Amino acid sequence: MKAQNKSKENFNFPKDRKTNIAVLVYDGVEIVDTGGPMDVFIKANNWNGNYNIYTVSASADKSTLMDGGTFNMLSKYSINDAPQADILIIPGTSPEIVHKVSADHKMMNWIVKQNEKTIMTMSVCTGGLILANTGLLDGRSATTHHWSLDELRSHPKIKVQETTRFVVDGKFLTGAGVTSGIDVALQAIEIIHGKDVADDLALGMVYDRYNTMEFLPKK
Fold first, then answer.
1. Taking the CB of residue 68, how many other CB atoms lie within 10 A of it?
2. From 88, 98, 191, 209, which residue has the greatest number of CB atoms within 10 Å?
3. What's the pLDDT tens digit per position in 186-215?
């Protein structure tokens, strides 16, 4: 199974302005988790999209040291001055860093506050654990990286999905890990613009959006 879709939301995106897409970043954030979804929306802008895509740093100085210490990103905003997002994307990281960032009450409160007015809230990989730690996924179906499913199960109110690349439940879209962030973003494009547009974008990215999770070892 590729995806579980339980969305009954009416996604009413603004027609009189650009849709704000905020990508939350923090020290140690995974590069593909971050860049994959952003690239989908950037390419959607090249098609006929109307997206204002920006990063939001958890640090006040807007500086983020990416996964592996590979490069330092300077975000457009920090959580102190970021505008309200229409779509909020939370990328993942290693489990150890998940625990560290989840203890950042200011960042976690910012996620909760932003979510009050988002049209979509998305996570990639262990970003789903960060989202779960806010309590926002309680009562929802969700997924995360297959190595972190047990930790997601530690939240008894979340209906954990194990064999899918992403899950849509209401306004929440959660991806299974790393490259599945591209799937999540393409699914958002499909919801907003239709399947043909999402498929065309995937074709341009040379990306097989109809892949499955069947490669995982059988338990």
1. 10
2. 88
3. 999 999 999 999 999 999 999 999 888 877
Q: How far apart are CA 103 and CA 19, in angstroms?
A: 30
User: How far apart are the C-alpha atoms of 172 and 7, rounded to whole Å?
Assistant: 8
Q: What is the largest CA-CA distance in the chain?
A: 50
**Which CATH architecture fits 3-8+17-204?**
3-Layer(aba) Sandwich (3.40)
Contacts of 141 (CB under 8 A, 6+ apart): 4, 6, 158, 159, 160, 161, 167, 169
Reduce the DSSP state of residue 56 to 3 states and report it.
Answer: strand
Say if residues 60 and 78 touch (Cβ distance below 8 Å): yes
pTM (2 decimals)?
A: 0.93
Q: What is the pLDDT of residues 40-60, one digit of tens each?
A: 999 999 988 899 999 999 999
